[in-house]
Amino acid sequence: MKQAELQSSTPCNGSCARRLWGWELPLAFLCSLFVRIGFMRFLARPARLTLPLLLSLAALFSVLLPIVILSQSARAQEGPLDKSEPKGTTVEEIIKLFASKEKEFKEARDQYTFRQDVKVMTLDGDTPDGMYQQVFDVTFDDKGHKIKNVVFAPQPTLQRLMMTEEDFDDIENRLPFVLTADEIGEYDILYVGQQKQDELNTYVFDVAPKQILGKKRYFQGRIWVDNHDFQIVETYGKTVPDIRKKKGQENLFPKFTTWREQIDGQYWFPTYTRAEDTLKFSMGDIRIREIIKYTNYRRFGAKSKITYEGQEVQKAEPKPGDQKPTEPPKPQ
Asked: Is 19 helix (H, G, I), strand (E, B) or coil?
C-alpha cells in the first residue's frame, strides 16, 4: 500500500492481531444490555433483596458466567509449542508430503466457485476513518474459464492510503498462500516444533524465501500443517518484499493470518484472513486493518445462483481481458 500524496498522518501505535473473536462484539452488547436492565431495576426498587431483584441478578449471573468461561477457553485454543522432533517420520518427509498435498489443494480449489469479501480500513485509534470494500464471486463461464464477477463495490473512502497493483495481487493470490511442490525449492523451511490448534495436532514451520528475484513476490512467516492430512491449516506472516524507492515512493504490506477449514471432507481451503498492523512510512505511521472472508465454496458443475443481501445478481457478460461488474444491489 502506498501512502496518499499530500496527506499528513498521525503516528499511532499498533500491534498485529493473531486472533479475531467474532462473537465478542454481540456478547459485549448483550452483557451491557443485561447490566443496564439490572441497574435500572435496582434503582427503581427499594434497597432490599426482593424476589424479582434476586431473579434478575440470577439471570444476569447466568449470562455472564458462561461468557467468562467461554472467553477463557476460546483464548486457550493454541497450545504450547513442543520443540521435540517428530516421531515415526522425518522433517524432510513431512515437508515433501505437505508440499505434495498443497499442489493437490491448489488444483482442487481451481475447480471450485466461491465468494470473496474484501475490506481494507485505515484506523484512527480503533475507529475506521477510511475503507475500501469489494465483494466478488469467482465463477466459471460457459467454456469453463474462471471469471471474477463483482457483486458489491461501494465508493472507496480511503484518504491516507492508496491500494496498489501489488495489494490486489496479494489479496487474490498470496494471502490464501499455497506452497506447492513446484515452489518448495524457492524457500528455506525450518522445523519449529509441534503445537495444538483447536482440536488439530500440527507441525510448525518457519518459511522464508531463499532470495528475492526481480519483481516476484513471496510469503515469509510461519505455517501450521495438520499432522493427519498434511495440509496447511493456518499461516501467519507477510508478503515480501516491502517496496521502497527513491523520492519517497513506498509500498508497504501488513502482517496477516489466514485460517482454513476443511471443505467437502477433503481439502483445507482458506475461509478467513485478518491483518491488523502499523505501516511504518517515512512520513508517519498508518495503522490498517484487513478482513477477507471466503465463503460459499461449491465444486464447479453444481447448480447455483449469485445473490447479495438476499437479492439475485445477474452475471456480467465476460469480455476478453475486461470483466466489468454488474450494478450492485443496494444493501437493505
From this structure: coil
**For residue 6, what is its C-alpha cell?**
499530500
Q: Which residue has the cell 522445523?
A: 191
Amino acid occupying residue 171: I
In 3D space, the residue among 313, 275, 243 whose CA is nearest the CA of residue 121 turns out to be 275
| Residue in the block written with cell 458466567 | 65
Burial of 282 (0-12, 13-18, 19+ CB in 10 A): exposed
DSSP 60-129: HHHHHHHHHHHHHHHTT-B---B-SPPSSS-HHHHHHHHHHHHHHHHHHHTTEEEEEEEEEEEEETTEEE
Q: What distance in Å separates the CA atoms of residue 160 and residue 8, rounded to the nearest whole number?
A: 8
pLDDT tens-place string over residues 230-250: 999 999 999 999 999 877 789
Q: What is the pTM of this model?
A: 0.70
pLDDT at 172: 87
Residues in the chain: 332
Q: Are 157 and 133 in contact (CB under 8 A)?
A: no
8 Å CB contact between 169 and 181: no
Collect all residues with Cβ–Cβ distance below 8 Å to 219 and sequence separation of at least 6. Answer: 174, 177, 179, 207, 209, 235, 237, 238, 239, 240
C-alpha cell at 34: 443485561
What are the two backbone dihedrals, phi and then psi, of residue 64, each rounded to the nearest 5 degrees? -70, -40
What Rg do the C-alpha atoms of the chain give, in angstroms? 24
- pLDDT at residue 282 in the model: 92
